[in-house]
């Protein structure tokens, strides 16, 4: 499956490795000064979560430029928002099939 990486027109097969390596994790933490990418609070090394900026399920690669270190709370919030966006998109597609608000009884008489 070919996907557009980061929207730059580059095509590649889906990254088979979903988890960041220990070296990648250290690099991400270093780049962020050991702080959460969202709330900027210091990260507890025992509880840090690593997040794909462009979701892995959408073709995001497991590379440091597509990774962010987050505290568990921020990771949960971001993941929840992404899931809500997917559900909202599905609702919009299915609700546009037949809109009853534009139909009146006169149309059937």
Features:
DNA Binding (I), subunit A, flat, two-stranded antiparallel ribbon, 109 residues, alpha+beta, two-stranded antiparallel sheet
List the helices and strands and how they pair.
Blueprint: E1 2-5, E2 10-13, H1 22-31, E3 49-52, E4 67-70, H2 72-95
Antiparallel strand pairs: 1-2, 3-4
Describe the structure in your own words.
The protein is 31% helix and 15% strand. The protein is of the alpha+beta class. It has one domain: DNA Binding (I), subunit A (Orthogonal Bundle), CATH 1.10.30. The strands form two sheets. It has a two-stranded antiparallel ribbon with strand order 1-2. It has a two-stranded antiparallel ribbon with strand order 3-4. A hairpin with a 4-residue loop joins strand 1 and strand 2. It is flat and about 55 Å long.
CATH architecture: Orthogonal Bundle
Q: Into which percentage range does the β-strand content fall? A: 5-15%
- CATH level 1 name: Mainly Alpha
Query: Ends: how far apart?
Result: 51 Å
What's the helix-strand series?
EEHEEH
For the biggest β-sheet, the strand order reads 1-2
Biggest sheet character: 2 strands, antiparallel
Q: Unreliable runs, pLDDT <50, ≥5 residues? A: 1-10
- Rg from alpha-carbon coordinates: 20 Å
- The percent of residues in helical segments reads 25-40%
Total domain units:
1
Give the beta-strand count. Answer: 4
If you consult CATH, what is the topology? DNA Binding (I), subunit A
C-alpha geometry = flat
């Amino acid at each position: 499956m070919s996907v557009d990486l980061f929207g730059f027109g580059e095509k590649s097969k889906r990254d088979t490795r979903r988890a960041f390596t220990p070296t990648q994790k250290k690099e991400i933490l270093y780049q962020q000064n050991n702080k959460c990418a969202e709330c900027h609070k210091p990260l507890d090394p025992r509880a840090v979560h690593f997040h794909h900026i462009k979701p892995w399920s959408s073709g995001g690669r497991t590379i440091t430029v597509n990774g962010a270190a987050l505290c568990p709370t921020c990771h949960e919030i971001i993941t929840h928002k992404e899931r809500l966006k997917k559900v909202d998109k599905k609702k919009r597609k299915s609700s546009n099939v037949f809109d009853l608000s534009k139909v009146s009884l006169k149309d059937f008489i």
